[in-house]
Design brief:
Elements lengths: L1 H9 L30 H7 L3 H12 L7 E6 L4 H14 L2 E7 L8 E2 L2 E2 H10 L9 E3 L12 H13 L3 E3 L4 H12 L7 E5 L3 H4 L10 E3 L14 H7 L4 E4 L2 H8 L22 H42 L1
Parallel strand pairs: 1-2, 1-7, 2-5, 5-6, 7-9
Antiparallel strand pairs: 3-4, 8-9
Helix pairs in contact: 2-4, 3-4
Length: 321
């Protein structure tokens, strides 16, 4: 965040403390030419706190991510805080994040036309904070091709992304768009997880097939069938790959202990997030206890059975006598 704020200062971009009171630099404008939809200011500020990176570390570990894993990150420009948190968390674990992001953003996201999500990432790469530029960029907005956005500002932002070396995705048909993204993610090997941030069109396709589903989604969670649709989330789940979804931020906070829209930020390491025990850890800790409990039950059942048999034999012997 310090590196980002220094970059913004050098570019003459002011941080509005009225909407970004913690001075994160990861909260955007109320509106601009690359704004796509309305967004929650509180949700954007939630993703812009340092603890968001700690949450992403926990979720990635729960998904089985370890050093050397490939993390596919599919993010709109709407939640720059969570997107950067995911890149930082991947670096901390030793995993390699492959990022596809978009120019378009909902309100208060990365919606500065001169400093889009692609520009933010590139600035942090140049300052040594994260190791890799975005692998691919799309326009975002309607049809993922900028419908409803200012055409000139979008074109200028995409031109900068090309100069950064990013592939520009321009597929209008959903299945082809998803296939193109999957191909980018698989350039360096098979991803071990998909992190889907924001409500970009390619994530689930039309409609909302995953209402109320946030955080870690495992393929086995969908015992009947993965919700219909040709989106990227469905594609990964059907391939047996877990997905970390960040969209309904209030719900995510309620499930994980991340503070929602805190001002000031919680003292480092003091939020409820750090007192929440992950599902994997619960399983690890409870496994031996369950095994002991089962052994005790079986032993007691065997003792009762032996007692009944002995009693029955005694009664039989008495009857014969």
């Amino acid at each position: 965040m310090l590196a980002l704020c220094q970059e913004m200062a050098e570019r003459g971009l002011a941080i509005d403390k009225a909407i970004d009171p913690n001075g994160s630099g990861l909260v955007g404008l109320p509106f601009s030419g690359i704004t796509t939809t309305l967004g929650s200011l509180g949700a954007k500020r939630t993703g812009a706190q340092p603890d968001a990176a700690a949450l992403m570390v926990r979720l990635l570990r729960d998904a089985g991510i370890r050093r050397g894993s490939i993390v596919a990150v599919d993010s709109s420009g709407s939640f720059p805080g969570f997107a950067i948190a995911t890149l930082v968390a991947s670096k901390e674990i030793g995993a390699e994040a492959v990022l596809i992001t978009s120019i378009g953003s909902s309100t208060y996201g990365a919606n500065r036309p001169e400093f889009t999500m692609a520009d933010i990432v590139e600035a942090l790469v140049a300052r040594g904070v994260i190791p890799h530029s975005a692998a691919a960029i799309s326009a975002g907005g309607g049809g993922d091709v900028g419908i409803g956005m200012d055409g000139e500002e979008t074109a200028q932002a995409l031109a900068r992304a090309r100069r950064y070396g990013a592939l520009v995705l321009e597929e209008r048909e959903l299945s082809r768009n998803v296939a193109a993204r999957r191909a980018v993610f698989e350039r360096k090997g098979s991803p071990a997880v998909l992190v889907s941030i924001g409500g970009n069109w390619s994530a689930v396709g039309s409609g909302e097939a995953f209402a109320g589903r946030n955080g870690l989604l495992r393929p086995e969670d969908f015992s009947d069938e993965v919700p219909l649709g040709a989106g990227l989330i469905q594609d990964f789940l059907r391939s047996g790959i877990p997905v970390i979804r960040v969209l309904d931020v209030k719900d995510l906070c309620a499930k994980t202990g991340l503070a929602f829209d805190p001002t000031p930020w919680p003292e480092r390491g003091r939020a409820a997030l750090y007192r929440s025990v992950s599902a994997n850890r619960i399983a690890i800790l409870s496994g031996p206890l369950i095994a002991i409990a089962v052994a005790v039950v079986i032993r007691r059942q065997n003792e009762k059975k032996a007692t009944r048999l002995a009693s029955a034999r005694g009664e039989t012997a008495n009857a014969k006598t």
